[in-house]
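Work package 3, deliverable 3.1, input record:
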Amino acid sequence: MLANLSIHFPVLQVVVPLMAAPACLLLRQRGLAWGFAVLAMLVAFAISVALLYQVIAGGAISYALGGWEAPWGIEYRVDLLNAPLLMLVSGISAIALLAARTSIENEIPADRHTMFYIAWLLCTAGLLGILSTGDAFNVFVFLEISSLSAYTLIALGKDRRALWASYQYLIAGTIGATFILIGIGLMYVMTGTLNMADLAQRLPEVSSSRTVFTAFAFFMVGVCLKLALFPLHLWLPNAYAFAPSVVTAFLAATATKVAVYVLLRFVFSVFGYEFSFSHLPLQEILLVLGLLGIFAASIVAIYQTNLKRLLAYSSVAQIGYLILGISFANETGVMATLLHMLNHGLMKGALFLSLAAVVYRLGIAQLDQMHGLASRMPWTMAAFLIGGLSLIGVPLTVGFVSKWYLVSAALENGWWPVAALILIGSLLSVIYIWKIIEVAYFKPVSATTPDVQEAPLGLLLPMWMLVLANLYFGINTELTVGVSQLAAASLFGGAP
Amino acid sequence: MWATELPPFVPFFIAAVLALLTRGNVRNAIMLIAPVLGGLHLLTVPEGAHLQLAFLGYELVPYRVDKLSLIFGFAFHIAAFIAILYALHVRDTVQQLAGLLYAGSALGAVFAGDLLTLFVFWELLALTSVFLVWARRTTRSYYAGLRYLIIQVLSGVVLLVGILFHASATGSLDFAQIGTGSVAGWLILFAFGVKCAFPFLHNWLTDAYPEATPTGTVFLSAFTTKVAVYCLARAYPGTELLVYVGATMACFPIFFAVIENDLRRVLAYSLINQVGFMVVGIGIGTALSINGAVSHAFNDIIFKGLLFMSMGAVLHMTGRINGSDLGGLYKTMPRTTIFCIIGAASISAFPLFSGFVSKSMVMSAAIEEGYDWIWLMLLFASAGVFHHAGIKIPYFAFFAHDSGIRVSDPPLNMQLAMFIAAVLCVTIGVYPSVLYGLLPYDTGYSPYDATHVLAQTQLLFFSALAFVWLNLRGMYPPELRSTNLDVEWVYRRLCPTLLRGVFARMGSIGALNSAFVDRIALLSPVLARQLGPQGFLASTHPVGSMVKWVTILLAVYLILSFV
């Protein structure tokens, strides 16, 4: 039974959360809906783990939807590049959803909880769909599913500005999606196909045409907007700052990573390394924007007093590192990017969940209310501390592993100044993390510190799962490094 | 005693965890037992790599034992035991845990067989030791600790960069001879140099050590610089530059030590001075000089610890540490006075005290290798150290003008700790073969030949004469300078070098207090306007500006792909 079912895993990965969403609507009662949603996400997570091991053992899996063979039908394709990300997205979604029940108690009116879980499942399904599909148009469709549900989730934030932030994100996201659609449309015009593998074969024949250049330009800008590359990041800080806390944890850990995946997939697999890096100075553009992003966003983060906003800017900086890895255009660089996608998901997940706990107790994560908070909420702040160390890149955490490979990749190209800049960038993150640690640990409890208790277990458990993952994958790097290495090698080895 | 694969830092870390869970006498027992068991166990450990594992495609050796690491291992165990005993009366969990973890990190660093493990313990040394400074719980100590931490962490970052370069060039993380033949070598040397308090990189030491708690400074004086000495001996033996750097280190602190009023800061300067001798020994690079450097490190850990302990006892009992506030304490603190004098005699290298048997090796090696000028500088430094550490410390604290303070000797545990250190100082001085048996090389050296004993005694005699004369004529500086700040001011005027400026700037960036934003705003108003919460980059933008950027980027892509 399971063996028969396992053939359908690539599509079940998406279908399980997608179908669970309307089922939640039928359940109505919010506790039930939560339980069911968690169950669905755990199933999705189990499927993603099974898929990853299938891919590691037997190579890429191609699944023809409805039995229609590609290129006529829609193909689902799970390979080394997206399998670990499927696991990340479903895993983070499941863990954040575990925390959601407690966290949203204080942030969202009870009558909207069921809707919240539905939007959550849809968003997850969209993200998983983007990852697993092998069809360019399908990418757009799932992008819209995930984005529309993300706008809903953000708009549920308790602060009234959430609505406005969500609206901003809606406009920006729609522009991005439209650009992506224009790019895909132009590709379709030139090649007559939407299947990615097919596109990869046919694009080289027409690669010198201006239409393809234009397609590439539109597509790139659209994706860069979705992944919040500096200076197209303007929607992100508000969206993260005003969204419900668990939503921030979920989106920060997954949504931008999925957009980076789309970038990697199209730059390396569909357009191909030759085309992408030769017809325009993509390397230089990404390098400059990546570095600018790291420094501008880190420095802005240093000045923030709202912690969610601070970490949002830190996310923009971290996206700079991801882009930097791609700009090296060598195998180690792409591998570092892949690795950092996974690792950054883990650290930001842990950090934002600990902020969710702070918000749960304090109502807001504002620096001037956190004096001596570590004595009141020791477990929460310890989680934040470890997450912060990981963000800085201290050994024995995942952050160190990704920084190591990123710097190695820079050195491989002989770009010493870039390597130095990466490390200086890390020092900036030391400053903004220290600022928080100092207030929470070294300042005496003051009159502005509300009298609060440690966060409930419902938040602490999911938070510490991610914290421990930060430590575990920082010490035992076999799985993450191994898979990233193989995936990067496959991107440079040829067609998907 | 237990499995050989268990690295020496583990008992300390376990003891720290157990100490966290226990109170009172149980905790004291645990803290005292950890270094004893660890040290006894170390006697049974054979040489070789005892632990290996793979990480990121490199082979890591977190636990490697050879003669060089063993002697530092023994010294650190002894120092840890003495310091823990000395601090036994302290009822402060933070200090006690920090002390254990700090000692454990130092052991981890000297038994690290690869650079990555070294880096981890390098940063742990900084992170754990800073709490010994902060534990004083004054504003001054907080900022001094912060500056200390920032400089130490930066040295770690430079070390990491060097390691990355080194690994990508050689493909190996093995911690062995590195040399200055590459950029990586220079970067790593710089990182070691910061921890070793090379001239102009030494500020953290004289800044933070005197601000630590009375017991904390005893820990601090033993480990950080000695780990750096060990690393230099491992990676840069025979690097000629180190001879000159070391000679400078031996000489320049003397001037500051003589005019300094805070007696623990005097000791901090003399710490740099003693490390200078070791660095010279490593730079010369012969078997004799390396032996000298290593054995001097061993002795310095004990006699410098003893001196810091005696001054800590004075601070603990009187609450004062400025030379001008003290004096006449010998009447009521006789035992502390004797311990202090033994420490002073050892650091001054009196024959029959421990400093003599190790310092003479470095001096002999310098002469043998033809470094005549260096030898003279070291001779001057020897005279100087006798002057400020050998005479000034005991004289101003325990004799000089009677300050009228009448306090008794410190608690029994402090006295016991000082007693053990004093016994060690004399034992090693009288039976140097105890120490020589542990050294990395067998050179058959004997310190007690007629010329050396005579030369050293003459030197000490004339140095003492100079002090007496200056003092009688009323020309000895501390009588002129009454406050600490005054000296600081002179000191800052004397070497306003670029590097110091950089460190001062870093210090102010590092001093992230609640007025952090204001501070930066003062530093760079323009930057703050652009980046602050209301600044250009951080403000929320209307949708239009997002669209503007999208358009610009699209245009850039299109133009670049068409041209």
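The CA atoms of residues 24 and 36 of chain A lie 7 Å apart.
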